[in-house]
From TrEMBL:
<keyword id="KW-0804">Transcription</keyword>
<protein>
    <submittedName>
        <fullName>1257_t:CDS:1</fullName>
    </submittedName>
</protein>
<dbReference type="Pfam" id="PF11594">
    <property type="entry name" value="Med28"/>
</dbReference>
<dbReference type="GO" id="GO:0005634">
    <property type="term" value="C:nucleus"/>
</dbReference>
<dbReference type="InterPro" id="IPR021640">
    <property type="entry name" value="Mediator_Med28"/>
</dbReference>
<keyword id="KW-0539">Nucleus</keyword>
<keyword id="KW-0175">Coiled coil</keyword>
<keyword id="KW-0805">Transcription regulation</keyword>
<comment type="similarity">
    <text>Belongs to the Mediator complex subunit 28 family.</text>
</comment>
<feature type="coiled-coil region">
    <location>
        <begin position="85"/>
        <end position="112"/>
    </location>
</feature>
Amino acid sequence: MSSLQELSAELGKAMNICMDKIIPKIPTNEISESVEDDNERMIDLQLHRYLEEDQEQPSQAIELQMHNYFQIAKQLQIKLERIVYHERNKDERALKDEIACLEQEVERKREVITKYTTLMQKWSREFIKLDEECDTPLPKFE
């Protein structure tokens, strides 16, 4: 399991702990399954009981769990930003390498063109010399 997956799992666990502390546990055996209104009333009753109990108890545990959750979330955010940065740099390096290869190819083609042009100029001079030396003119190639 990668460190990113571990962080994500840890974040999920921390979130579940926070949610368990904040949202009341409602026992399913107390909820009447027959009528939806009974369900809503039971949930409201459980929530009301929980809120009354919560006012009596300090909420330090909830704050601690939320703080822990946000720390893990921040670590996950930092890891994700590093991955995004790394991917951008990888793409940028690939593009730079491709540009360098294309520049080398262009330079090789310039060298070939330069050599060909030089050779053609040399041949033209040789043909002119031969033309001047011979009585019969040589055919012109165009």
